[in-house]
Amino acid sequence: MKLALKEKFDAYYQRWLNKRLPTSRSIKLTQKRIFIIPNKIGLLFLALVVLVFVNGVNYQNNLIFSLSVLLLSIFITAIVSTYQNLSGLVITSGHANSVFVGKSAHLNIGLVNPARKNKQGLWMGFSRKHASAVPVVEGVHQLNIIYKPSERGPFKVPKITLFSRYPLGILTCWTWLRLKFDGVAYPAPVFIPYQYMGKSDQAGEEADDIINLGIDDFKGFRKYQPGDSLKHIAWRQFAKTDVLLTKEFEEAQAQGHWLDWKALPGHESEARLQILCGWVVKSFEEDREFGLSLPGLDIPVGRGDYHRDTCLRALALYGIPADLISQESVIEK
Amino acid sequence: MKSEPLGHIALLFLAVNLTLALLLHMERLPVWIIGAAIAVLVWRYFIYLGRVASPHWVVKGLLVASGFTGIYLTYGWQPSIEAMVSLLVAGLVLKPLEVEATNESYLLIFLSYLLIALNFLFDQSPLGYIWVMAILVLTLATQVAVNLGGEKPEENHIISQSPGKIVGQAFLIFLKSIPLALFLFFILPRLDPLWSMNISTQAGTIGLSNSMSPGDVAELGKSDELAFRVRFLEGKPDVKQLYWRALVLDYFDGEQWSQKYKPEIDWPPFDGDSSENAQANVSYEIILQPHDENWLYALGVSKPITTGIGVSEDGRLVSKKKIHSQTLYKANAQLNQTMGKAGLTKKASRYYLQLPASGNLKSRQFAQDLKSTHKGSLDFARALKRYISENEFYYTLSPGALNSDSTIDEFLFETQKGFCAHFAGSVVYLMRSVGIPARVVLGYQGAEENPVAGYYSVYQYNAHAWVEIWVEGLGWLRIDPTAWISPERIEQGVESALKNEFVGFSSGSSWLGSIRNQMNALNYYWNDWMLSYKGDAQQKFISELFGDRDQAQMIGIYVACFFALIGAVFLTLLFDFKRVRLSDGQRLIKRYRLGLESKGYELKDVMSIKQISQLALTASPHLAKDINWIREQIEVCLYVDPDSRFSKVDYRKITASIKKLSRQISKAQHA
Lengths: 333, 671
Known about the structure:
The structure holds 2 protein chains of 2 kinds.
Chain A: H1 2-20, E1 26-28, E2 35-38, H2 40-58, H3 62-86, E3 90-96, E4 99-100, E5 105-112, E6 122-125, E7 132-134, E8 140-147, E9 153-154, E10 160-164, E11 171-177, E12 184-186, H4 207-213, E13 218-223, H5 235-241, E14 245-249, E15 257-260, H6 269-285, E16 290-294, E17 297-302, H7 305-317
Parallel strand pairs in A: 4-12, 15-16
Antiparallel strand pairs in A: 1-3, 2-11, 3-5, 5-8, 6-7, 6-10, 9-12, 10-11, 13-14, 16-17
Chain B: H1 8-24, H2 31-49, H3 57-75, H4 81-94, H5 102-119, H6 126-146, H7 163-187, H8 214-221, E1 226-234, E2 243-249, E3 251-252, E4 257-258, E5 265-266, E6 282-288, E7 298-299, E8 301-304, E9 309-312, E10 317-319, E11 327-334, H9 346-352, H10 361-373, H11 377-390, E12 394-395, H12 407-415, E13 417-418, H13 420-433, E14 438-445, E15 448-450, E16 455-459, E17 463-471, E18 475-479, H14 492-501, H15 510-531, H16 535-546, H17 551-571, H18 584-598, H19 609-619, H20 624-640, H21 648-670
Parallel strand pairs in B: 12-13
Antiparallel strand pairs in B: 1-6, 1-16, 2-7, 2-14, 3-4, 5-9, 6-11, 8-11, 9-10, 14-17, 15-16, 17-18
Helix pairs in contact in B: 1-5, 1-6, 2-4, 3-4, 4-5, 5-6, 6-7, 7-17, 10-13, 18-20, 18-21, 19-20, 20-21
């Protein structure tokens, strides 16, 4: 019963918090977002004030009394100072590299301090326990925070807490940051041998042969284009002539292999995505041309970093409603 | 909550803080604690250097146990403030051995605050207060230093703060806290303690004691410690009349005088009615140094004006509570009045005629003989005076011990050397042996004037014992047998030895004397104001400040003030935005733009100095020379060396030519 009540309260608290602190790309810490409360040390400090006060009354000693009111007043000043240390700070979400589920992504976060005073003694992390110290913020400061996505799709970065006990350590002032990052979590790749479902008629049984033919059959040079695999750059020529050339190989362009959703009938859709992901990774590593076929989406045959990223992204976002995928930056005022 | 290892600056602050807190209490700490403190600091330093490992918990446990044992051995089980302070200090001293992380260091810091507070029980001087406030700021700085976040040497990105900056931050917090603290200090009513837990100081007080054995008063005679200060609000009695009564001793056991008779104490309600006091010829205010006793000092027949003070039947003033801190009280006195005129109760006269059953036969015989020739009480007293002044009696503070069973006999007829206690005791003995009720009065005689602040100081060496005898119809009369000794018989040796100790303060050396007076005056004002700002004084101050208002209005004013002050603290939040500092070049451009814009030119926000100049040129080509010159100057400033500053003269020259330019433009426009 008690537990249920607590859960209910937690849920309510989370809803309230989410409403109060909407997700965005840039957050300015204002009074609406900053919470402040005396911590354990602060309560100890108040106990000290009471103790000094009691001594002052007991010995009818005005000086001890003056010290107790001074300490109390310092406590109130500390409320302002602690709050001031956080307020005004602008936090923006920066670049986030897309990674496979379970791998570490670096979320780049920018801190901008528009105030004259430096922000000191800040801590940031997904929870108080796992927070790390932020150096003194004088003007602009960039930092990375490591995030491990647990499911594929756009990053769902949990709330990040930013807190500080500066200057006196008797109050904790904190905020929750719900920052939006562009990163995408690719499905965790699963590596199994290729299976093909003919996109064109020639495909199927012969596909392995085609692949085996491939790479070594040198055709000639052509001018380097961005996206060409680094493995195929003619480094020797580059050293001689300073011109970047790409080695071209005899390959059945039209018969570039297709990584096909339909080739994996026995698997559930998440597993299919993971296997497809593994194939994409493998094909990229082996520098093959490949196309990706998902229900309702065909990515034509291609190669290179960009092509790989497009395919992985398609796999990551497969089946996720479009309104959850936002590409454009929304900057809150 | 995460606790970070402390940076080296935080450790440095903690060490300094600890040292200062110890210094505050240095004089009342046993030597071994100070030794231990130094040892622990050195030990901790080596741990910090990494040369010594952190002590094992067994070692720490043993240290704590030996600390407790040491305190027990020094102070015993008797609770006293010294023991409490020592206990705190022992904790404070041993704590650094374990302090590695932020959270542990707070205990150390809070202990320092407590020690600072306890220091006020011992030292309430204004200079002491300033010193303590300095230590308070440093303790705050330590707290700030601890909070700067762990400073890891391998991670250079944490900008290490200079100690000076940290102290600056602490001082700012301190300054911001003062207005509210002052307000609370002036407004908050001082509660009467609802409990009475008075652990008193052990050695802190020197003063009179409940009983008089001759040695005690002699010891006091050598102390120059302050007993109390007094200011006369009305009337200014002659110093010779200043007999401050504190104790009345009635019981003699053959060696010591003590208090057996417990007279009734009358606790007059405080009525503020001064009509009765109208006949009083002296009205005075005393700031009493704490002596941990109930008795107060009073002149003649006194009536207290301050609450909580009673008048005993034998004319003493008594405080309801023991005096543990500096206390101020006021009383009215009638110097010419005597008490007990109406008569003496049977019970009282029994006490005042008490004598030990045996001993001092010679003295009794002497008194009987004298009485047979001088029948009246006053006559007898006069005869006694004549006897003492005509015989070889000497006044000295070190008369040597009296060893026989009959000390009075020995003093009166053999040694004849003594000080006030000997004379007073002997005279009371003689009086009683012929049936005259008599008693010894202990107190202080005289006072030293401070002309700067207009008050008098009474020191321990003013301690005195004298005699009161009861005469039918006249009441109790004061007799001071010490004054009967002829002045030349005061032994020079002892007195001059005493004087040597005071030579720096003697009024003979004028500038030292005046400095002393100034300092004492400061102390006096401090005591009069800061220490006694409670009760009536507070009431008076508040009603002077806000006028006489009813309670509801007062509460309204308090609440308004309180929130106004807190609001003022919060206002500082508003003044914390970066003012963009413009370089000289940027400032000049701004001026230039403003000058042109006021003449009706439209300038885009992003225009460079080149574009602005071209615009100006097309508008007024005849001013090409000026325009180009200004442009050149500004460009040099902006692009050649952005940090450079113009000299004042150059800067003025450029602004002047900008002004000239815009004047000429407007002239051209009008034309």
